[in-house]
What we know:
Blueprint: E1 12-15, H1 21-35, E2 38-41, E3 56-60, H2 68-81, E4 85-89, H3 93-99, H4 104-110, E5 113-116
Parallel strand pairs: 1-4, 1-5, 2-3, 3-4
Amino acid sequence: MGESSPDALPSTELRGRQRPPASSDEILHTVQRQSGLEVLHAQRHSAFVLPAHSKVIVVLDDVCDLSRDDQDRLLDWISRHGSRVMSFASRSPYAMVCAGTFVERLYYHLNTVCIVLGDE
């Protein structure tokens, strides 16, 4: 795989019943190495954390767990800084959009590339 510009990184959703730790860590390591960007796990803190700059890939351990306020904050951050987000989902965010519990515009920002892991 050749070197790529960080600006060329699409937002990616990886979806499956469980996030497989070994393969997801390999994916993150590869993306980080090739992009040269810092990786921030936004949901691994006591509060949802977003960086003040765009030189980072924001990783969401389970996008389906975001509150409506956090979804709005993330959409605002993407609008201001670009969409370098890698999200994992234990279930279909699209079903949440249909149910009115997930922001539709955010869904389309995050779902530029969708990779289904295992059985869904």
